[in-house]
Amino acid sequence: MQLFQEKYTVGDVTDSARMIVPGVRYSRRRYRDLVRPRKGHQYSLEVRGAHQWLGSDTGLLQVLAAGNLLQPLPGRLTLFTRVEGAFTAQNEPFADIPASLRFFAGGDQGVRGYAYQSLGPADDEGEVIGGKHQLVGSIELERAVGEKWGVALFYDIGNAFNDFTSMDLHQGAGLGIRRYTPVGPVHVDLARQFGVADPGVRVHFSIGFGW
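Above: the chain sequence. Below: its structure as tokens.
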């Protein structure tokens, strides 16, 4: 259960909200080697909600699901696929939902090639304010180099949005280097945006697995 009194700024609007958000979550992970796994999977499902009857300022229901699969291939290759989705229904205007319960995309664990939380519905000034729903997917092919290194090709797609009939999914793809350590892999990725008029390139740095 989450309990918080949040003051938040979204775009040029500052507001506050009191939320009591009970929920239930189920997850399962099966990777035999957590230092450098070559096969395994993980999936999770979370349902959470809030209501004025419970003391929250607004009522909502959210469903979040995620899954990934790591599969070995010939030639010291591994294929990693990932998908995440989220859905929101609310009984008050969306503007009343605090920022921490909205969805954004972009960044190291979202759509590479874009800055962290830079994707999603925007206000009239062009500021990203987050969305009701989210859909993100990724596919990555890695080639092992020695025992502690790897090189990867990846493709990401996704966004946050308010209407399933008008999803504007952004795309990014690129190259990455992996250095495996006892505390997890170090990722350095060079990603380029696709499907936009003026594509940009970003460098992403992260530590740990993307699951």
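The chain has one domain: 2-207.
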